[in-house]
Design a protein that fits this description.
Blueprint: E1 2-7, H1 19-22, H2 27-40, E2 44-49, H3 53-63, H4 76-80, E3 86-90, H5 99-108, E4 112-116, E5 138-141, H6 146-158
Parallel strand pairs: 1-2, 1-3, 3-4, 4-5
The protein binds 1,3,4-trihydroxy-5-OXO-cyclohexanecarboxylic acid.
GO biological process, one term: quinate catabolic process
Site (Transition state stabilizer): 17
Pfam family, one: DHquinase_II
Length: 164
């Protein structure tokens, strides 16, 4: 069983960027804590951060055992051979813009939790809409970086995984 934690654009700057909104914890701290948390539950957790939409799409496909060159292998058996049971994703600003990430998550059919450090509903109106939320198993926002802990806990303990 494996969980993949994905962070999108600018989240490499957590701890430095707008600390009044995002707090002072860094991404390496978050990733380390998430790995330890998962491992205490007997689960492996992989992490990935990119500022690039296409790189995130590639990583999501890879989580299903599909690479960017996977055109030939598209049977249901491939989905069963998926490498990751659940995804926890903070897509950053791509939340509000990316149909490609939505399609990638729908395409691989891996259940995911959407995380936002800030309360996106209490900010600019353009942050209220997410291209992912209606496909997510759960959405966490406004809990600060604790949202990652909550999401990993939920993913590890409560999300149905294919290889169980
Ligand atoms: C964010 C919220 C987004 O609106 C913003 O673009 C981010 C971070 C959050 O974690 O609160 O980059 O996803």
């Amino acid at each position: 069983r494996r969980i993949l934690l994905i962070n999108g654009p600018n989240l490499n700057l957590l701890g430095k960027r707008e600390p009044h909104i995002y707090g002072s914890t860094t991404l390496p701290d978050i990733e380390k804590q998430a790995r330890n948390q998962a491992s205490s539950l007997g689960i492996e957790l992989e992490t990935f951060q990119s500022n690039h939409e296409g790189a995130i799409v590639d990583r999501i496909q890879e989580a299903a055992g599909w690479g960017p060159n996977a055109a030939a292998s598209s049977s249901l058996d491939d989905v069963r051979g998926r490498k990751v049971s659940a995804i926890v994703i903070n897509p950053g600003a791509l939340t509000h813009t990316s149909v490609a990430i939505r399609d990638a998550l729908s395409g691989v059919d891996i259940p995911f939790v959407e995380v936002h450090v800030s309360n996106v509903h209490a900010r600019e109106p353009f942050r209220k809409h997410s291209h992912l939320s209606d496909k997510a198993v759960a959405v966490v926002c406004g809990m600060g970086v604790y949202g990652y802990t909550a999401a990993v806990e939920f993913a590890a303990r409560h999300m149905k995984v294919v290889d169980e």
